[in-house]
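Annotated sample (chain length 182).
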Amino acid sequence: AAIQELARGWQEREDTRTLIVDRAQNDPDYPTRRAAIQELARGWQEREDTRTLIVDRAQNDPNYDPRRAAIQELARGWQEREDTRTLIVDRAQNDPNYSPRSVCLGFLAQGLNDVRAIALLSKYFTATDPYLDPLEPISEKHIQKGAKQLGITVDEARQVLADCEPVLGWNPLEPSRSAKSQ
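Output written by the structure step:
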């Protein structure tokens, strides 16, 4: 809450931004780093060095929660940039934790034109978070349950998922490329 108040109350001061950048990178408490990342993205989005710092946090924060927040902020604030999409594909396949990978899959799924595919990629067939783990192939049980909920055949569900490959960058019926190489 203190980071939010500081960012929103004194945004015009450069020393405020400097302090929040320091907290995003160095605070020992991961919720504070997460809040600092969010406030930087919202208050200083127009600055390229803000995006650079958030990319760094998405890739290098030692805790998954600030990495997840950084990915969400990149997807929200810089979604039109191809380098954002490239980073999100990389994090979907290479983040060491399920939570940031799942957020990445959710962002990528929103680029699909088939709501059935988005639903099948979500854990509870809601086309919303939480999404499945992109490092794991989608289980037959999930496909069967999703087909039933969506009122399509299992073969149609498999085809819908296979058709996601051009947008996602991998076939969700198989482990992602990074998972195969591990």
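Annotation: The radius of gyration is 18 Å.
Annotation: The chain has twelve helices and no strands.
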